[in-house]
Amino acid sequence: MTRVQAAWLTIALAGAGTYAIRVVLWLFADRAEQLPDRVRVALRMIPPAALAALVTPPLLRPGGALDPLSPELLAGLAAFAVAWFTKNVVATLLVGMVVVVALAQVL
Amino acid sequence: MTNPTAAPQADPAPDSPRASFRAGVASLLPIVLGVVPFGLVAGAAAVEIGIGVQGAVGFSTIVFAGASQLAAIGLLGQDAPVAIAVMTALVINLRMLMYAASLAPHVGRWPLRRRLGGAYLLTDQAYAVAILRFREGTDPHPFAYYLGAGLTMWIPWQLSTIGGALVGATIPDSIPLGFAIPLMFIALLRPALTDRPAIAAAVASGAIAVVAAPLPANLGMPLAALAGIVTGVVVAERSTTSTAHGDPASDGDSP
Question: Within 10 A of A81 (CB to CB), how many other CB atoms are there?
C-alpha cells in the first residue's frame, strides 16, 4: 500500500469513527430528559475540565519535556490574565502571541 | 433557516432563527483567529508527508478534527500502520464524547436529522460557545445558533487547510503559529470558569494533564478531564452539604 492509499484509508476509517463518537449519544438524546442531579453536575464540569486539559500541556511541556520557565508558559500566563479580566478572545490571542514572540527573542 | 418573510438586507427580528444564526456566527468569529494557524499547520503537514492538497482536504472535510488530523498525519509520515493512525486519531477524538454528553440534554428536542447533521459540526470551539448559550436557555432557536457557530468554524478550517497545503513550506519558523492553539483554548476556558466547582475541575484537570501528557495517543487528556470532572462534582457536593462557608451556590450556579 502506498502512503497515499494508507492516508485515504486512514481518512475513511478515522472519519467514520470520529463521526460515530460525535453522534452516538445524540441518537438517544431525546430520552435524556430526566438526569440524576449528580450526572447534571458532572455534565456541568465538562467544559472547564476538558478545556483546561487542552491548555496546560503546551504551556508546561512546550517541547515535550517539562519546562517550568518557558516563553510559552509566561505568554500563556499573560494571556490567561487578559482572558480572566476582559473575557476578550481577540485580546487574549494577540497578547499571548506578542509575548511569546517577544520572549523568544530575549530568552 | 428559511424565513420567507424576512427581507434579505433588514436586521432580523431578535427572536428569529436568523438572529440566532447570526449570534452563533458572532460568538465563534473571534476564535477563528486561533483556528486559522491550526488549519495552516494541518494543511502544510499533509503536503509535507506527500499526500497532497487532496489528502489535506480529505482529512479536514471527512475527519474535521484538527488535533487528531495532525497526529494521524504525523504517524503516516513515519509509515506507521493504518490501524495505529486510526486508533490514535479516535482516542484523541474521544473527548468529543464528553462534549456530546454535555450537549445531549439540550439537543434532545431537535429532530433526528438535525442531530445527525449537527453532530458532524461538533468541535472544541463550537462546543465551548454552544454550551454557554444553551445553558442560558434564552435562545429560542438553539439549532440555528449552533449551526452559525459550527459553520463559522467549518469554513475557515477548510480554507486555512487549503492555504496551508498550498503555501505551508513558506511559513517562517520564527512565527510560532502553533502557539495560537493553546491560546485559543485559554480564551475558550475563561467563560467556563463560572464558580468554585468549575475552577476546581479546571485546576485538577490542568495539573493532571501535564503529568499524564507522556501517555500514548493523547490518552492523558481524557483521563485528566475525567479526574477534573470528579473533582468538580466533589467540590460541588461539599458546598451544598456544608453551609458553614455561607456558599449560596447550591447547584453550582455563579455566585
Answer: 13
Q: Is B175 on the interface with A (CB under 8 A)?
A: yes
Q: Which whole-number Å values give the CA distances from A23 to B6, B19, B110, in the listed order?
A: 33, 26, 13
Q: Using a CB-CB distance cutoff of 8 angstroms, which residues of chain B are in contact with residue A42?
A: 229-230, 232-233
> Which strand (E) or helix (H) includes residue B241?
helix B220-241
Q: pLDDT 10s digit of each residue in chain B, 255 long?
A: 455 554 455 577 888 999 999 999 999 999 999 899 889 999 999 999 999 999 999 999 999 999 999 999 999 999 999 999 999 999 999 999 999 999 999 999 999 999 999 999 999 999 999 999 999 999 999 999 999 999 999 999 999 999 999 987 566 766 777 898 899 999 999 999 999 999 999 999 999 999 999 998 788 999 999 999 999 999 999 987 765 444 444 444 444
Q: Which of A17, A45, A80 sits opposite B229 (nearest CB)?
A: A45
Binary contact (A14, B184; C-beta < 8 A): no
Do B159 and B22 contact (CB within 8 A), yes or no?
A: no
